[in-house]
Amino acid sequence: MTALTLSTAAAAGLRADAIVIGVAKGAKGPVVAPGAEAVDKGYDGRLAAVLETLGASGGEGEVTKLPAPAGFKAPLVVAVGLGAEPEKDAQYDAEALRRAAGAAARALAGSKKAAFALPLADAADAGAVGEGVLLGAYSFDSYKDAGKDAKAKNGKAPLAEAALLGGKPRDKAYKAALERATAVSEELNRARDLINTPPNDLNPESFAAIAQAAAKEHGIKVQVLDVKALEKGGYGGILGVGSGSAAGPRLVKLSYTSSKAKKHLAFVGKGITYDSGGISLKPAGHNETMKCDMSGAAAVFAAVVAAARLGLEVNVTGWLALAENMPSGTATRPGDVLRMFSGKTVEVLNTDAEGRLVLADALWAASAEKPDAIVDVATLTGAMMLALGNRTFGIMANDDAFRSALHEAAEEVGEPAWPMPLPEHLRKGMDSQVADIANMGERMGGGLVAGLFLREFVGEGITWAHLDIAGPAFNEGGPFGYTPKGGTGTAVRTLVRVAELTAAGDLG
User: Fold this and answer.
1) pLDDT tens digits, residue range 85-134?
2) Of residues 156, 168, 175, 282, which has the active-site annotation?
3) pLDDT of 437-479, one tens digit each?
């Protein structure tokens, strides 16, 4: 993990491999952002002109490298685009800083130390830059030979150290911002590691063991229900999904408690460690990335641990519904009826609509504790990807104000999201002739149908929201900003922010 430090050192005299500066897109060309004044002075005030000559525009994510001016101990200047220049006297957006820092950190793979001279108007900006660096420097190399030598992308190790110039090392707010950025980023990167781990090494049992180890380290109470316990408890949804696999399902409960808490949140995550579709087998070309179908559980796990590390004054319970969805002679068949933990029966019309089945049991278990609110997270439907694309997740809820609050929290931390409805007329499509409800309904609006199904398993009077992260959970394209190729860890920061706002009494 890249080390973060705050520095008051002058840019010219700092020993580093590179100095990172910001450049914005101005009305008449690139504009050097605040924080880079000393570097600009080294170019006799002509840095913007030099960058323009090199083709830089200040566009978001754009990276331009040039030799440092004479007299600087760092040999390289890395100019990273911040996007449009803000209006006069306005600060740069935190997400712009986060993405720029991430792009620079990726570009500096193989470097031992870089000085980041990006705009820092306050401690929050320092936190955003720190978060961007830590997330942007991420690499997953455990299965590459280069990993033995701590190398990553293109045979280069991640940036080892980032010094944030303009930071205030003795200022409590700045120190707290970096500590928060470190805790959240480390746990988000842990979620990325889990998502990227091949399914032959990550199954429900091994995932549960990882959660147990982390819980012990951070003082979190943990309970793991194995197959026998699930059978005794009547968790028909989780058992039904996992019945076709040699790797039995698990339900993991992580409980972080604070002596000063006034509220209790429950986070529920879909944890299908591999999704073949079951008997309703996925077509060729749709199986290769299905190790990512546990991204919701990874996000919940990371958020609970982050809450504990931050010492948030709110009780947070995480439920990881873990199963592997495989076809075999013991697998659930289309047409089977499962009796869920709630007592309701579900006719399984499609075994590839399995996420809602494991979530239903976990939602009912979470509801039994009467939390103030429940948020579930899942790579649930391809329909949500069709609706919102690959970078935005959908938010559904049984309370409009809560849905709006979650949307605001997601946007605040830089996770694109969009509020979605739960149209009552779509519920009828899940009526079953043989059971209380079917696991499929109308094809059109399938993501909303899934949300309506989940709502059936939320306890009466409990505020609930559903995050369908199918699009942004796994990036199959090239890296951008602080987002790598592969597992992204999306929703972790939203959940942590929801917990922070709840602790402060500011949610909604």
Assistant:
1) 999 889 999 999 999 999 999 999 999 999 999 999 999 999 999 999 99
2) 282
3) 999 999 999 999 999 999 999 999 999 999 999 999 999 999 9
Residue count of the chain: 508
**CB 428 within 8 Å of CB 504:** no
Query: For residues 396 and 381, what is the distance between their CA atoms, to the nearest angstrom?
Result: 13
Question: HEC profile for 182-244?
Answer: HHHHHHHHHHHHHHHCCCCCCCHHHHHHHHHHHHHHCCCEEEEECHHHHHHHCCHHHHHHHCC
Residue 430 carries which DSSP code? G
CA distance 139 to 151: 9
Count the Cβ atoms, other than its own, within 10 Å of residue 281.
Answer: 14
Residues in Cβ contact with 35 at an 8 Å cutoff, skipping those fewer than 6 apart: 21, 22, 117, 118, 119, 120, 165, 166
Euclidean distance between CA atoms 45 and 62, whole angstroms: 21
pLDDT at position 89 is 83
Question: Closest by alpha carbon to 71, among 116, 39, 33?
Answer: 39
Structure tokens at 256: 């972080």
* DSSP bridge partners of 373: 265, 463
Residue 148 among the catalytic residues: no
Q: Which helix (H) or strand (E) holds 177?
A: helix 172-196
Q: Are 271 and 464 in contact (CB under 8 A)?
A: no
What 8-state DSSP symbol labels residue 428? Answer: G
pLDDT in tens, 58-81: 999 999 999 999 999 999 999 999
Q: Distance of alpha carbon 30 from its chain centroid, rounded?
A: 32
Q: Is 356 a catalytic residue?
A: yes
In the chain, which stretches have pLDDT less than 70?
146-155, 508
Residues facing residue 293 across a β-bridge: none
Could you tell me if 464 and 377 are in contact, meaning their C-beta atoms sit under 8 angstroms apart?
no
Structure tokens at 37: 């004044």
Q: Would you state the pLDDT for residue 154?
A: 52
How many Å apart are CA 452 and CA 420, to the nearest integer? 11
Instruction: Report the pLDDT value the prediction gives residue 146, as an integer from 0 to 100.
Output: 54
H helices present in 379-441, as ranges = 382-388, 400-413
In the three-class reduction of DSSP (H, G, I as helix; E, B as strand; rest coil), residue 375 is classed as strand
> For 90-102, what is each residue's pLDDT tens digit?
999 999 999 999 9
Whole-number pLDDT of residue 153: 45
pTM of the model: 0.96
Spell out where 230-295 has E strands.
Answer: 250-256, 264-275
Cβ neighbours of residue 28 under 8 Å, at least 6 residues apart? none
Q: Supply 2's token pair.
A: 């890249």
Quote the CA–CA distance of 230 and 440 in Å, as a whole number.
24
